[in-house]
Hints:
Blueprint: E1 4-11, H1 30-33, H2 37-45, E2 46-52, H3 53-57, H4 65-68, E3 75-78, E4 95-98, H5 102-113, E5 117-121, H6 124-132, E6 138-144, E7 164-172, E8 178-185
Parallel strand pairs: 1-5, 1-6, 2-3, 2-5, 3-4
Antiparallel strand pairs: 6-8, 7-8
Amino acid sequence: MGKVVLGMTMSLDGFINDDNGSVEVLYPDLAALRDTEPLRESIQNTGAVVMGRNSFDIAEDPNWFAGNYEYQVPIFVLTHNVPKKMPKQTDDLTFTFVTDGIESAIRHAKTAAGDKDVNIIGAASTAQQCLKAELADELHVDIMPVLLGGGLRPFEDIDTELIQLERLKVMELPAGRTHLRFRIIK
């Protein structure tokens, strides 16, 4: 069975978006990022994605995901409110809106992923829920050399004594991005 991988990009001061909710400054290298070893490996190994509703809503047109998103796999969106209109789906990319919590979303995603990994796309709330429920096996964090001074921090309100990490990999990537990979010791 695959791993549950929690992944995110953050500023040097620990924010995953700015005060306005934008992630633009954290992805000046998006085209180059798609050609990096960590993202290619992640795409190859991922069998399903869990994302929060805010991450889903970043796409102005939810139909954009079909054929464009890096992960053309079943996507499980953690939400309180299911959208009135389903986004476009393909044979590979499907959407399931999960309203009964992170444990349910991960359970459904693991079933869909089979032997492949479940990738949790790191919005702050989804990351916090996943860590508090001890559902993640690995933590992948890309650090961008910018200071945002405000926004959302994924590691607030977490009992840090419960989380112990073992460093697996550190890589320098384009645009000053640093990729860190940790195993979460359970």
